[in-house]
Design a protein that fits this description.
161 residues, alpha/beta, Rossmann fold, six-stranded mixed beta sheet, globular
Length: 161
């Protein structure tokens, strides 16, 4: 697979990487598009050798260390990939785009409802009203993620013209 030349400074993909199930997909898209990917985690990750890919390990035990690092670095031409809704909200406040591994795109208009729903579900779980975890990750989720990531990249490129 040949690498596309890097784009002018601007579009980067920040990945909240510890439990991200779509890292390989991100590597493929970033290689095709010539975009920088920064994976942020609490422990070392194996990543393909490429000048486009960087792994940042934050201190273990540092609560929200990866989140804080991403928020400090991310800008308005960047994309955050995260399942962490509060992190997505913080990235949106900095003007970045954000989506989760299932392809849900967070926006300034929708993040308030998503945060409220998250709080309600946490409350219901704490009261024993809900059990179990999220539904399993599917091929359809992977496909949706790839489509939404491509949509965000294209929108950012159009906005930069």
């Amino acid at each position: 697979m040949s690498e596309a030349p890097p784009q002018p400074p601007g579009i980067r993909i920040f990945v909240d990487a510890d439990a991200c199930p779509v890292k390989e997909e991100i590597f493929r898209v970033a290689t095709r598009c010539g975009l920088k990917v920064i994976l942020v985690s609490n422990s070392p990750l194996r990543i393909p050798r490429s000048p486009l890919f960087e792994s940042v390990v934050v201190a273990r035990g540092q609560f929200d260390g990866a989140d804080d690092w991403i928020v400090a670095q991310i800008g308005d031409t960047d994309i955050a990939v995260t399942a962490d809704i509060p992190l997505a909200a913080r990235c949106l406040e900095k003007g970045a785009r954000a989506l989760d591994a299932k392809g849900r795109v967070y926006s300034p208009d929708s993040i308030g409802d998503v945060l409220a729903s998250r709080e309600l579900m946490a409350h219901l779980r704490a009261m024993g009203e809900l059990g179990g975890g999220p539904p399993p990750f599917t091929a359809r989720d992977r496909s949706s993620f790839l489509q939404r990531l491509d949509d965000l990249i294209q929108a950012l490129r159009r906005a930069r013209r």
